[in-house]
Amino acid sequence: MTPIKQRVAMISIFASGSMAAAKFIVGTLVGSIALVSDALHSLIDFFATIVTWLVVRVADRPADADHHYGHGKIESLSALGVTALLYVLAGGIVVEAFSRLREGATPPTLSAIPFAVLIIDIAVNTWRARALHRTAIDTKSQALEADALHFSSDVYASLAVMIGLAFSAFGFVWGDAAAAMGVAVIISFLGLNLARATIEALLDRAPEGAASEAEQAIKAIRGVVDVERIRVRNVGPRYFVDAIVHVPRTFPIDRIDAIKRQAEQAVNAVLSDSDLTFTAVPVARDTESVRDRIMVIARNRALAIHHVTVHSVADRLAIGIDLEVDGDMPLAFAHEIATGLEQAVRDDIGPEVDVDIHIEPLQPDQSHGANATPERTDAMRRVLARLVAEQGAMRDVHSVRVHDSERGEIVHFHCRSEPGMSVITTHEKIDEIERGLRQAFPTITRVISHAEPA
Question: What is the pLDDT of residue 1?
């Protein structure tokens, strides 16, 4: 239980008990059914406040294995129980008031004491009703809000009692009983409002405006295409938000997870103490390129592809794809996979497309090998230096490393070029060097080169 809830609830308990006792004693002494009714109303508030104090202690407990959404609903049940007590009290007051009107009971003995007690009661109840209302809003506590309504009803009830006593003082013997009935009516109306709010909470009615605020907060996040559905409900002071959100299907999982984290922060900013269930639905965007669509198709089929080229030839698209499969896979199986990928591309992009797929062995995640001899590495370094010098576009070959693998030699080297040289030109020049190196050393299976600006 939060300290502010506990402090406000304890003050309410003390105030309820003190004022209920004072009004009951004075009402009994002067014979005022209205004042006694008001005292009984305050007495119910006293017991209700004790229940509230106990309930909010339970409601603040965190979720556990048996209560996945926490214990906040107990506040609604408590408020519903207090509402039932209010109606029982209102009914009893009406019965007694009618009895006095019918039998012509003796009017109350009037003095300044009942009025003094009622004035003090009004002042105390006004203060604590405002304090409870503020705390209820801050903590979103239905139990404290119910207490605030009770004490507000005490203010109006006390005013009605004062009016009834004043009528009695001027000789209207029915004034006291009429005031008691007025107290019953006030209790009934306030109880009706409390019951409606409590039942709505128990039936999971969406908090007014909460869904719209959460939706706008999520839509404002970069990368969110749309919000398909959003649902919000309260369990005690906490909001539980379920959102189905459209995200680009080209986004990787870690990007989608980042959007989810941003959504949690955004929703918490507009609905404090909220718990967001975020369901991401991948969707195609109008801005997707043909290459983007092909990459999505391959990813959905768990295929490794690279070097995707797209050309417009006359009225048709020509698409080239390098497909990597297990090197030990029979060609018939590999061809079946490639054919399935071709058909999937045509189904997505359209029949007016030519798709050619080059099948190549998938590189293993990790191969085993050893460093080549220093003499072998020096020989390749000299050839690389000669090739670079003859070409003239690249220079300063360095970081040459040669590895012997199960499938042959793997060569790594770095070189430099002019900073202004385009990537296309740089790639072409390095390819020339790689081809020359392979011609000089046919046992090379792969060359990994890295160009740096001079």
Answer: 46
